[in-house]
Specification:
The structure holds 2 protein chains of 2 kinds.
Chain A: E1 4-5, H1 8-11, E2 20-24, H2 33-41, E3 47-52, H3 61-64, E4 76-81, H4 87-92, H5 98-104, E5 109-112, H6 115-127, E6 132-134, E7 148-151, E8 154-159, E9 166-170, E10 173-175, E11 180-181, H7 190-196, E12 199-204, E13 206-208, E14 227-230, H8 239-252
Parallel strand pairs in A: 1-14, 2-3, 2-9, 3-4, 4-5, 9-12, 10-13, 12-14
Antiparallel strand pairs in A: 6-8, 7-8, 10-11
Chain B: H1 7-15, E1 23-26, H2 30-33, E2 43-46, E3 50-51, E4 84-85, H3 88-95, E5 101-104, E6 108-110, E7 115-116, H4 132-138, E8 141-145, E9 157-158, E10 173-175, E11 179-184, E12 187-193, H5 199-204, E13 210-218
Parallel strand pairs in B: 1-2, 1-5, 5-8, 6-9, 8-10, 12-13
Antiparallel strand pairs in B: 2-3, 3-4, 6-7, 10-11, 11-12
The chains are: A alpha/beta, B alpha/beta.
Chain lengths: ~250, ~220
């Protein structure tokens, strides 16, 4: 399928009710915040979200550009994540524990995992595996209800692959063929999500002509990319705005 | 009045375990305070995909804060010569490779070196395992920094964990605000005590069996 270069609202239409969607989220580092906002504004429902950290920000941060994943809650039925960080709300005393209430009332399912298991589950999905035996999480909540097996005298737990319907990807730069380069720790879970997902929507700061990216430095080849969205320069999720936000964060957390 | 060690002093004691050429990972909380005291030639790895980064950005050089250069704790770091970036699949293969010294916090450590860190209860709505299980399982050496007792005065060095297990038989060394304790095949061994405290006092604040090393000494920095 040729790559479609379009805006976020158009690309997000590929996501249907009951789909599984995957994304990286580590503060605003490597998080596809522009696509989060488009998805939040859509009307799809009952999504399962595989997210490499679910970290709500302090009140008001979302208006400054923080990609607060709680904006996605109306779209979700389930969250699978290694780190469900809603406590920042109750700790700071801001508002009510609405995420906790959603979970307790059964309106939102959650599933605990570890970073390493989560990464390998995506990797297994990318490779078309039926699953794998992991040594991490034995006798913990991670292994609850799962098959275990002794291999060479050691206990392992069976983990299933993750094969998301749609991956939401943040990269620094793309060429028009969808070849992607990343910046710093913003690479993170983006490449493995791109490999595991059936369809990928990528947001980037800049789209260049083929040949302008050094092929030695391309991390995700364009074969994985279906939709390419350029983040508008004046957008809350643009790197220009995130740099301003970064200064504010350093000053607040000093 | 006798003082327990503060968090910064515990962090400073922990970095004495690191030597030039080591690669290490610093967990959330007190372990991240080690970042300011990392010895020359020790490289710090961060779960989201970087190793060998430079000092953290401060308010004095706020223009250096780069939204792409963020560590596992959400702090902005500066680049350093020899730094490398990688994806999280590579990062956790590295973490499980037995090549990194891991410094983690802790809620409890058992006599056998079992660690509880990620949760107070399996019924907690907010499970925050993060990388703790991977780090504890895969470390070359696992150092735990934690207070000797909980805020309500309960021992954190226990016979058996009462909090959910993070990983079994994984801890190598425990640094508390009162002592340095080795985890050995024969159980917990008291190696160093904080200035002003006695072996008996420390044992009285410890639920786990604690033997005393023949060469037990006062902790120094």
């Amino acid at each position: 399928m040729p790559i479609k270069i379009c805006n976020a609202d158009e690309a997000i239409l590929v996501i249907k009710d009951n789909d599984c969607v995957a994304a990286h989220m580590w503060g605003f580092c490597g998080t596809p915040g522009h696509l989060f906002r488009a998805l939040a504004a859509s009307s799809v429902k009952n999504l399962t979200l595989y997210i490499e950290n679910f970290l709500p920000g302090p009140e008001g941060a979302v208006d400054l550009g923080f990609p607060d994943p709680t904006m996605l809650l109306p779209r979700l039925k389930k969250i699978v994540t290694p780190f469900l960080g809603a406590r920042v709300f109750s700790r700071s005393g801001i508002g009510t524990d609405f995420l906790g209430d959603l979970i307790l009332s059964g309106k939102l399912e959650t599933e605990a995992t570890t970073h390493g298991v989560f990464q390998e589950r995506l990797h297994a999905g990318a490779m078309g595996l039926g699953g794998f035996y992991s040594p991490v999480g034995i006798d913990t909540i991670v292994a609850d209800g799962k098959e275990t097996r002794l291999i060479d005298g050691r206990k392992y737990v069976f983990e299933t692959p993750i094969r998301p319907d749609v991956g939401l990807i943040k990269a620094a730069k793309a060429d028009k063929l969808g070849n992607l380069v990343y910046h710093g720790s913003a690479r993170a879970a983006n490449p493995v999500i791109a490999m595991a997902s059936k369809v990928n929507i990528v947001e980037v700061d800049e789209i260049v002509e083929p040949g302008e990216l050094d092929p030695e430095l391309i991390v995700t080849p364009g074969v994985y990319v279906d939709y390419l969205v350029k983040i508008p320069d004046d957008d809350l999720s643009s790197t220009r705005n995130l740099k301003e936000l970064a200064k504010i964060v350093v000053t607040i957390l000093k | 009045m006798k003082q327990k060690l503060d968090e910064l002093v515990m962090a400073m004691r922990a970095v004495q375990e690191l030597k030039s050429g080591d690669y290490c990972n610093l967990g959330l909380g007190i372990p991240q305070m080690c970042a300011s005291y990392i010895p020359e030639g020790v490289y710090v790895q961060s779960e989201n995909g970087v190793i060998g980064y430079g000092p953290l950005v401060t308010v004095d050089d706020v223009d250096q804060a780069d939204p792409g250069l963020v560590d596992a704790g959400g702090k902005f770091y500066t680049p350093a010569p020899g730094m490398s970036f990688f994806d999280m699949l590579t990062s956790f293969a590295m973490i499980r490779s037995g090549r990194l010294i891991s410094i983690l916090g802790g809620l409890q450590v058992s006599e056998q070196g079992d660690l509880a860190i990620h949760s107070l209860s399996d019924n907690d709505k907010y499970q925050q395992i993060g990388g703790s299980m991977d780090l504890a399982w895969g470390a070359k050496r696992l150092i735990v920094i934690m207070t000797h007792q909980s805020k309500d005065g309960k021992p954190k060095l226990v016979r058996n964990l009462t909090y959910p297990l993070t990983a079994a038989r994984c801890v190598d060394l425990i640094i508390t605000d009162l002592a340095v304790i080795d985890v050995t095949a024969d159980g917990l061994v008291l190696k160093e005590i904080a200035p002003g405290w006695t072996v008996e006092e420390i044992k009285s604040m410890t639920e786990a069996d604690l033997s005393t090393a023949a060469d037990v000494k006062i902790m120094t920095l």
